[in-house]
Amino acid sequence: MKIKSAIFDTSAPDLKSCPPSALPEFAFIGRSNVGKSSLINLLAERRELAKVSVTPGKTKLINFFTMNDTWSLVDLPGYGYASVGQQRRDEFNQAVSDYLTKRKNIFCVFVLIDSRLPPQPIDLQFVRWLASASVPFVLVFTKTDKQSMLRSEASVRQFRETLAEGGVEVPEVFLSSSKTKTGRSDILGFIESTLAKNNRK
């Protein structure tokens, strides 16, 4: 898939404020500081489409981007915020929960995992929640340039095994790096094939 256009559409604080849209939506979410904005910019090949910050939890709204005039990329607030109060954190979580469970045109959620870390409870909890809510998702292991591929693959294997032990069906997995551009073609190819499958229905 070639990205010919990537245009910011709007930001929404909650589900009722989300724009009406018939376009298929592919949402991206992860723990704070997992490299979500960098990955989004890599996919779009736009350096500042999503704002990258050294401050965890920078994304506080649901951000919509129209890609190629045919699908929407949705940048969701991360989980595990470091610098917001409990009430605001609960509001973010509620907005994300409502979007993921009630938005009708979600085709897939990309859950970003830091490939350098052992399985984190907050990541496992979120993935298990997605599975229990029957939300379609895949995993993207980020920052693979910061360690050997063998270590990244070991992290993936450990995460998948931990999920399987809890009875969660293991989804498709991608390895990515915004620095080396690893994973860009695979993720865009997955989006393209998902769109094609749904168009044939």
Account of the 3D structure:
The chain has a single domain (6-199), classed as P-loop containing nucleotide triphosphate hydrolases (Rossmann fold, 3-Layer(aba) Sandwich). The protein is globular, with a radius of gyration of 16 Å. It contains five helices and seven strands; from the N terminus they run E-E-H-E-E-H-E-H-E-H-E-H. It is α/β, with parallel strands linked by helices and 201 residues long. A seven-stranded mixed β-sheet has the order 1-3-4-2-5-6-7, sandwiched between helices.
Report Rg: 16 Å
> N- to C-terminal separation?
20 Å
**Structural class estimated from helices and strands:** alpha/beta
- Look up the CATH topology: Rossmann fold
* Share in β-strands: 15-25%
List the quaternary state of the chains: single chain
**Tally of helical runs:** 5
Major sheet summary line: 7 strands, mixed
The topology string of helices and strands comes to EEHEEHEHEHEH
